[in-house]
Amino acid sequence: MTEAIHNDYEVSSEGAVRHWEIPYARLTDTTPTPTNAAEVTSVLPGTQLTGTILSVDASRSIAVIDFTNSMVYRHDVRNVLTYSTGSESTFGAINIGDPVYYDNSATMPAGVYLSTSPLDNTGAANTLFGFAVADDIASDTFPKGGATASTQRVAVMQRGA
To answer: What is the pTM of this model?
Structure first.
């Protein structure tokens, strides 16, 4: 039997691109901004769908979000590891391969949605957003941050859908 690729078979090395419209009301941050991280609300903390906002349509209150698995975007990431009595407690350097979480903590700086802490400042689970990766701009600057509070621009490979 001769092996052949059937004409109804398609192959892609990049996988499916997932760009979906999500109403603002379903987002954790109901005032979305393009290029920011996004989290779609759900009933169980830590299980939310996350991605990167591509565009917004204010007239329809809709955000277009990229939920593509393994897509890499640069995001600001807080280097907080733990919280104590509602405040940031410990910090650590961000290195290639470290998990990055969507963090709803009230203590996060304005415009920063990601951190290295698996729990928020109330002790609830943060959603895994993705992993820190090297990029062509900043691959030689790891680890980023250190034992004191800081926010670092990091390439993050998102977990997606």
So the answer is: 0.86
